[in-house]
Amino acid sequence: MTYDYIIIGAGASGLLLANAMGKDSFFAERSILLLDKDLDKPNDRTWCFWEKGKGEFDAILHKTWDHILVADGSYSKRMAIDPYKYKMIRAKDFYNTSRTAINGCPNITFLKGKVVGIEERDNQIIVSTDSLTFVGKKVFNSIFDYKPLLQQKKYPVLQQHFIGWFIKSASPIFDSEQATFMDFSIPQIGNTRFMYVLPLSETEALVEYTLFSKNLLSTQEYEEAISNYIKNNLACHHYEILDREKGNIPMSCYDFNIHNSKHLMHIGVAGGWAKPSSGFTFMRTHQKTMALIPFLKENRPLNTFHKKDRFWFYDLLLLDILSRDNSKGRLIFGQLFKNRSPQKIFAFLDEKSTIWQDLSIILACPKKEFIRAFLRRLFLI
Ligand SMILES: Cc1cc2nc3c(=O)[nH]c(=O)nc-3n(C[C@H](O)[C@H](O)[C@H](O)COP(=O)(O)OP(=O)(O)OC[C@H]3O[C@@H](n4cnc5c(N)ncnc54)[C@H](O)[C@@H]3O)c2cc1C
To answer: Is the pTM of this model over 0.85?
Structure first.
């Protein structure tokens, strides 16, 4: 069976793309196949992102915060983020609303199938599942494979890895207006380690132990750190664990585009759409999808969509520093949030700042580290 477009994976990027195509009349006469190995995905994650004012996902927001807190052991700073809000959506709500919308599009077929092969032949892409074979004129793949990243040496590869507990405390202990964005006041043990606390009410919160480092920890190590933090930092002794989430997101400036071709494009984490310096992916994937739609209408080769810019280079410098000395994260992020407003930092991370604003952000960080990293790359590239 031949389709104009095949989307592999109905996670964040696959659903965002299918939905965007479903809403646009240009694609109404074109056949779209969406494939996933699981049709009933559990509520397997929460997505958070900052956004100014109203946004596309407001109807399914689970919680929003007007303030963030950053701490590094020597200071603790609560900051208003107006006009931004930090927003949370639950995967379950996103999967349900996206699937309902897709079901209403007669040109989109959503099938269960574990993809076992993707092959380019005669300007078409052959997609094989464990039981069927499909032909796509254009194919978008969101299955992520770590191997090629780990097999190269040109770009450092870190991971943002974490385990989070959704807890309910016996008494009110949380400020439900404030998200603890990065709390570095915990033992760093040679890495970049911080706590991320998202209160849902005065008694409920997601408490997540997060690292930006090369290697994962054992489950016990993450969980001991969460338990210690709840006891020692939050002074909470009576609580229950309602749920858990875990994840690891690649942080790398690796050139994911080399795996794309005229007719095949990798999307989401698999396409390198996770911001290398922070792991934030959801909003970035939404923004890339919005840019991809007009691009598809022009029928241009899919491997010409990706562009490298100065933000890619800034991310590379940070990853170079953290990969050489993984303990530097507390100093860098600590100084950054101490010296600059969250609004300026968000604009920079959204890649919407001017070059002068970029410079002001970089100058707020330990300069020596960045100058050294810059010189190293200058002579290496
Ligand atoms: C627990 C967790 C929390 C996160 N929180 C945030 C956050 O707060 N903010 C943020 O910006 N980012 C966050 N991320 C990072 C990122 O936004 C998510 O990983 C996001 O889901 C990535 O989207 P994706 O489409 O690339 O991958 P996925 O959403 O993982 O989708 C891939 C899809 O492919 C399917 N699939 C895999 N293999 C096959 C196969 N062989 N055949 C068919 N289908 C297959 C899977 O079932 C899945 O549905 C988080 C990640 C995790 C894991």
So the answer is: yes
